[in-house]
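Handout, tutorial session.
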Amino acid sequence: MKRQTIAALSASVFLLAACSGSEPAAERPAETAPVAETPAPAVGTAPAVEAEPAIETASAIETAPAAAAELSQDEQIKLGKAVYDSNCMACHGAEGKGVEGTFPPLEKSDYFAKDNTKLVHAVTKGVNGMIKVKGKDYNGVMPAVPLSDQDVANVVTYVLNSFGNNGGQISAAEVAEIKSK
């Protein structure tokens, strides 16, 4: 029991350290280019006319989200591993085995095997209360992880295809849809 408590405390410290200072991209302030000051026109002269900024075409706007949606499963797994390593590994371990009695395993997990929306909800909304994984009860708290929909899709795709799980792929659009329910 003492060993589990120490493991839980250690993992909590790692989780807090991993999460500190990480904001979802949507909540970060946008960086802006410095604005050059324009001197006031001399008295009696007409103000200078500035050129209109370029207008983005519809095709330029549409290609950015489409490019993200077109990640291959292999690309998502690679990107998802990086998200996992920085956000999930402290509790669930490098091999997805978790910590018995404290953090449920992701390895060959029956918790989300037939319903990957459970995994999306675990990441985006957190888990609180009793769950059963591989025949064992876990009654803990997993906080929501502040990630973009694409990062959630990547880490879920990584977990679905790692640790002896059955595989699968989820897109950022699917994450957004699942989160809305």
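The second record follows below. Compare its token runs with those of the first.
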Amino acid sequence: MKLDMIIQLTQLIHKLTAQNKWTEAFDELRTLHYPDVANVLEQLSPDVAYQLLRRFEPGKRSHLFAYMQIDAAIAIFQLMNHAEAVALFEDMDHDVRADFYNRLSETERKELLAGLTPAERDDIRKLAAYAEKTVGAVMTSAYVAVQDSLTVEQALARIRAVASDAEVIYQIYIVDEAGRLSGTLSLRELLTAELSKVLRDIMVQDVVSINIDEDQEEAAKLIARYDFLALPVVDNEQRLLGIVTHADALDVSQEENTEDQMRMGSVSTDFPMATSLKNASIWLLYRMRVFWLVVLVFGNIFSGAGIAHFEDLIESMVTLVFFLPLLIDSGGNAGSQSATLMVRALAMGDVRARDWSKMLAKELAVSLLLGLTTATAVSVLGFYRGGVEIAMIVAVTMVIVVMVGSVIGMLLPFVLARLKFDPASASAPLITSICDGTGVLIYFSIASVFLDMPSV
């Protein structure tokens, strides 16, 4: 549903609920897809959203919660009675409820666990215990696994018995007596096989899996690379512990892309990614942005120091000041472009750390062409403002600052990756600040040479 339709529907729901027409309001929601219903509920006050949500069947409530922003979902959850909260958790997907469980207070957790079966309590505690950003934190335990000693007929009977609780049944995982992942079969392969065949004799043994302690981004990359519907998760002994679904991988990719964008904007990512910007507090937004902003303020001192160093030159040729923002911004822009391309290439695995020298040679050639093109344009303006001498100064400076900025933007992600930092930390503001200080020194040094004046 389009955004304008969501807004109109939300306004209608507001109007109907204000008039105490709850049945009519619910009728407007009940035929929508889950993401659209969740979007509308997020726009309403928690008490109104709760009254509408409880009119849905219990199984549908859990699906709606999976699509809601976590802060909005918790606000509604806190209005539920104990029986409603327990029923909601029983119907939730295993990985979703584990993540939701981690957002609750200690008191809420104890009250909730008291109403669940021992098996469900153990499952939630186990999944919720894995460290954030690891594969274990995003995997689900709702999968289908059968022993390799079973026949096809026995395996199909087992699958029928557990299929209703599994998130993915298109791929069947096969384990040995110790629970180690030994093979896999698609549901199609299983249905078309002879019923008397033993699984170990027909299974595909070359299984792509991932360790539970790996970074969740690696799971998303593997699923994208092999076009999997799900990826099996194992421990150090190759015992099957769960799966990461294609939907979970999409969520991980979206979260990682969001973090990269925030880093590229010099915004801290040490805060919950699920927090809605609309509902975030002023204090939270301040803390997310203040650190890097202060760091960059001190970084820009070098630009001021460079200008102060060439005060005599500036006083004798005021025209130079006109071109200063244009030139140093061009270096920063070129560096930001280069860094953006390189961060993306490193994240996608298209470029490796060992490729830096090859990429440097290519970047020097590209930046030279870019510098010559922009220098041609700026030299015309330089000639108009100050004659041939100024035109030469700004043209040469433009070529050099664009090349230097591009090389800095290209190399910084490699350096950060080598130091085990996220390459996305080579953010546009950081590169711009570095290029600003460098550009000032380059510009006035070249001007000193052309104007035959000492720089000190």
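Points raised in discussion: The longest strand covers residues 181-186.
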